[in-house]
From TrEMBL:
<protein>
    <recommendedName>
        <fullName>RecF/RecN/SMC N-terminal domain-containing protein</fullName>
    </recommendedName>
</protein>
<dbReference type="GO" id="GO:0005524">
    <property type="term" value="F:ATP binding"/>
</dbReference>
<dbReference type="InterPro" id="IPR027417">
    <property type="entry name" value="P-loop_NTPase"/>
</dbReference>
<keyword id="KW-0067">ATP-binding</keyword>
<keyword id="KW-0963">Cytoplasm</keyword>
<keyword id="KW-0238">DNA-binding</keyword>
<keyword id="KW-0547">Nucleotide-binding</keyword>
<dbReference type="Pfam" id="PF02463">
    <property type="entry name" value="SMC_N"/>
</dbReference>
<dbReference type="GO" id="GO:0006302">
    <property type="term" value="P:double-strand break repair"/>
</dbReference>
<feature type="domain" description="RecF/RecN/SMC N-terminal">
    <location>
        <begin position="3"/>
        <end position="330"/>
    </location>
</feature>
<dbReference type="InterPro" id="IPR003395">
    <property type="entry name" value="RecF/RecN/SMC_N"/>
</dbReference>
<keyword id="KW-0235">DNA replication</keyword>
<dbReference type="InterPro" id="IPR001238">
    <property type="entry name" value="DNA-binding_RecF"/>
</dbReference>
<dbReference type="InterPro" id="IPR042174">
    <property type="entry name" value="RecF_2"/>
</dbReference>
<dbReference type="GO" id="GO:0006260">
    <property type="term" value="P:DNA replication"/>
</dbReference>
<dbReference type="GO" id="GO:0003697">
    <property type="term" value="F:single-stranded DNA binding"/>
</dbReference>
<dbReference type="GO" id="GO:0000731">
    <property type="term" value="P:DNA synthesis involved in DNA repair"/>
</dbReference>
Length: 359
């Protein structure tokens, strides 16, 4: 899969902007504030329905525009489809595929992307919730079943939390406890399976790049998987949950850990170790998505040389030979050319963005 065309209307600094991409390496270059990250953000929204910079899509609407509309044309060997995501300042969102409206979750996994950007460093150095969100997004991309199971769980969790705020009777809360245990068990079972697949992809990636000593592993940190035990946990926590007004234990509070040489990277990792771990995680993500969806994801590399140094970027650049569409942003072309990437070839191109585009 690759993105062929992108049209952004009322999005970030763009009133109206259309871009065309090649199936190989695309280098988007331009000075600070010219809209490079915004372009990758638009592609990311068309891939998963969400931004990687903000949880509030309305923030991405161009300041003088009433709404924003993103349209992407995605092509694979077999087909071509047009995905559009529109959103308004009052949080209404519409997603269409070939002009037919679909549920926002529908676009997951169809046009997968792998994003390597400074913002993604939070996967190794951020909070457990940052990591959980990352794995939930990745797993939702590789497994539609995981996504629907997670959506079901979140619906039940929301209802239980509403009830907790109303000082419920034991009978009322028990009904929701059972539903929560049922959906939580399904999430945990699927999550564990997918963590294992991710770990395998990570081990393979480390070996491939001769980084055997880099033991980046994922520890799911799952609480009890036995439904009965989780029901007991909920019972034990009940008074606490009523006081807090929300459910304190469950899949939504798992604490994934990234290990570097067997130790928690968050507490022991040097800056360089954080960076290399992120690259390996991203390469593993690429591998997993490719295997599971039988679709080659588009690699989005934002602010490349801020995220990687020359040596570390080699592992990423080795991917570029394998028919992978890659969209790189950088302030200039020099560093890219120094890496031996020929931009004027048939499958590669450069796109120059100017700061104050008169669209
Ligand atoms: N909602 C918005 N409305 C109007 N302009 C916005 C909005 N959000 C962001 N911008 C502006 O859009 C511009 C492009 O931002 P972007 O982050 O894409 O730049 P960039 O090319 O990646 O820059 P850098 O090289 O510094 O990373 C910035 O000047 C930013 O202030
Ligand atoms: Mg940027």
């Amino acid at each position: 899969m690759s993105i062929e065309k992108l049209k952004m209307s009322g999005f970030r600094n763009y009133k109206e902007k259309s871009l065309e991409f090649s199936p190989g390496v695309n280098v988007i270059w331009g000075e600070n504030g010219s809209g490079k990250t915004a372009t990758l953000e638009a592609i990311h929204i068309l891939s998963v329905g969400r931004s990687f910079r903000t949880a509030r899509l309305q923030e991405t609407i161009e300041k003088n525009s009433p709404h924003s509309r993103l349209v992407g044309v995605f092509v694979s060997e077999k087909n071509k489809k047009e995905v559009a995501v529109s959103h308004t300042k009052d949080k209404r969102k519409k997603v269409t595929i070939n002009n037919a409206e679909v549920q926002p979750a529908e676009i997951f996994g169809q046009n997968p992307t792998v994003l390597l950007s400074p913002e993604e460093q939070k996967i190794t150095n951020g909070s457990p919730s940052d990591r959980r969100k990352y794995f939930d997004k990745t797993f939702s991309t590789v497994s539609k079943k995981y996504l629907t199971t997670l959506i079901d769980y979140n619906k039940v969790l929301k209802q239980r939390n509403i009830l907790l705020k109303k000082t419920p009777t034991s009978k009322e809360i028990e009904t929701w406890d059972e539903k929560l245990v049922d959906t939580a068990t399904k999430v945990w079972n699927k999550r564990e399976k997918l963590y294992k697949e991710f770990e395998k992809a990570l081990v393979d990636t480390c070996e491939l790049y001769g980084k055997k000593e880099v033991g980046v592993l994922i520890n799911s940190g799952l609480p009890k998987e036995n439904p009965k035990e989780f029901l007991e946990v909920l019972k034990t926590n009940r008074q606490k949950d009523i006081v807090f007004g929300y459910t304190t234990a469950g899949p939504h509070s798992d604490r994934p850990v990234v290990l570097y040489n067997g130790k928690n990277i968050k507490t022991v990792g040097s800056q360089g170790e954080h960076k290399i771990s992120l690259v390996l995680i991203k390469l593993a993500e690429y591998r997993l998505i490719k295997e599971a969806t039988k679709t080659t994801p588009t690699f989005l590399l934002d602010d490349l040389f801020a995220t990687l140094d020359f040596e570390r970027s080699d592992a990423v650049f080795s991917l570029l030979e394998k028919n992978t569409q890659t969209i790189i942003t950088n302030t200039d072309l020099v560093d890219i050319k120094n890496h031996g990437i020929i931009i004027d070839g048939k499958t590669n191109k450069s796109i120059h963005l100017l700061r104050q585009c008169k669209n």
